[in-house]
Amino acid sequence: MSVPPPKPIVLTFEDARRAVEEQAALIRANNVRPLRAESVDLLAAAGRVLAEPVLADRDIPPFPRSTRDGYAVRSADLSELPATLEMIGEIKAGEKLDRIPPAIGSRQTVAIMTGAPVPTGPDAVVMVEYTSQRGKQVEITRAVAPGENIVPRGAEARAGTTLLDRGLRLNEAAIALAASVGKSRLQVYARHRVAVLTTGDEIVDIDATPGPTQIRNSNSYSLAAQIRRAGGEPVLLPVAPDELQRLRRLIEEGLNSDLLLMTGGVSMGRYDLVEQALSEMNADFFFTGAKIQPGRPVVFGKCGAGTPFDKLRAGSARDGVSTPRARTYFFGLPGNPVSTMVTFELFARPMLEALAGESPRKLIFLHARLKKEIRVKTGLKRFLPAILSGEFEHSEVELVAWQGSGDIAAIARANCYIVIPPDRECIAAGEWVAVMMR
Ligand code: AMP
Ligand code: MG
């Protein structure tokens, strides 16, 4: 069989990223890989994607809450200062209702603690710092606006309103919010399977002793770590040699997962056979390269037997075992270890997030001052391993010394990437540069 390799489709970084985001949107809209929910302990839910809305079980706060230690007052009583009020009680956080004075009149006050319920009558709390108490007399030296230092009942959320939406990746704040409404377990989406296929005659397993010209497989492990972090379950396939038949068989195996990530074999070399193999398998390619460095030969497409998206909807609603599958998306990531890691972050991650049921989010870049001048050739958008450092708000960033995109030791020292636009040749020390965190 002689099928030509695919016609090259080389996109700018932005266009390639958009192509991925479009396919990720299709996954979400068409339920391409139906999501399965599972119930997990609240703590095990951190980092996972929420599969149920979380509602307020009561008004938050459930009572008008004092945000300060001080005295609850009628703000109108403080029109002339200093003002002296009569203290008729004390309310601490968690005070039982029957111990709270039923009515607090004009020119009266109660001592109140942070987190305690404000009784009927007062409309503000004066901080203790602006008061002095002698017996039952409290002298106040500072006025307050109506409502000051009180959060009204239900001001943060009304009972029954949605606090957290489906599709949210749960960080510590979301976990705290779920805890605050008594959710000890949460429904999260099950991890989807992401196949990892490394190619190359020179690659050996990490348990094997490499021959003098062989190297150990590190890409499968960096990818597995990135997949786990993005909410997927990595499925490591055996290393594929640079030989079409065996490569095709392993690609076929990988296409049974929800997504296939391959590394190596996508450059211009005589033994870079991944695109050839995929072409023979009737794959569709969205792109076969991006104008970036590292990672220029990155490939994105769809392959395998499958059902068009519009037919899938009906199928997944049937909920049967024989639910039709869509063609499987794949990435061919360049084999150089730094290229593999960068192209995963730039392109594969949004697809994993869509498969995980997560709502779309944009790439985020920070800015920092460049410590040392950078000179590069124009034409490619660069994502270069770098170290972000500095004290407090004075961040500065510099490239790590590296031997190119095969240098794993260099990227292990880096904590970010400096992003250089394709039209810049020289960036001077002291300039602001965009930084992508790892
Ligand atoms: P390739 O993209 O196949 O041309 O590979 C580019 C470079 O990355 C070569 O030096 C390979 O030896 C290296 N490489 C490919 N796959 C891996 C891997 N799984 N682990 C470590 N290095 C790799
Ligand atoms: Mg290779």
Describe the overall structure.
This protein is an alpha/beta fold and 438 residues long. It folds into 4 domains: 10-36 and 191-355, Molybdenum Cofactor Biosythetic Enzyme, Chain A (3-Layer(aba) Sandwich), CATH 3.40.980.10; 40-57 and 168-189, no CATH class; 65-151, Molybdopterin biosynthesis moeA protein, domain 3 (Beta Complex), CATH 2.170.190; 366-437, Beta-clip, CATH 2.40.340.10. It has helices at residues 13-30, 172-180, 219-229, 244-254, 274-280, 309-318, 337-355, 408-413, and strands spanning 10-11, 37-41, 54-55, 65-66, 70-73, 83-91, 108-112, 124-127, 131-134, 137-140, 150-151, 162-164, 185-189, 192-198, 203-204, 215-216, 232-236, 259-263, 284-287, 289-290, 292-293, 299-303, 328-333, 366-370, 374-375, 381-391, 394-399, 416-420, 426-427, 432-437. The strands form 9 sheets. A 6-stranded mixed sheet has the order 8-5-7-6-10-9, with no helix packed on it. A 6-stranded mixed sheet has the order 17-14-18-23-22-19, with helices on both faces. Strands 24-27-26-28-30 form a 5-stranded mixed beta barrel. A hairpin with a 2-residue loop joins strand 9 (131-134) and strand 10. Helix 4 packs across helix 5 (274-280). The longest helix has 19 residues, at 337-355. The chain starts with 9 loop residues before the first strand and ends with a strand. Mean pLDDT is 94; it is low at 315-322. Bound molecules: adenosine monophosphate and magnesium ion.
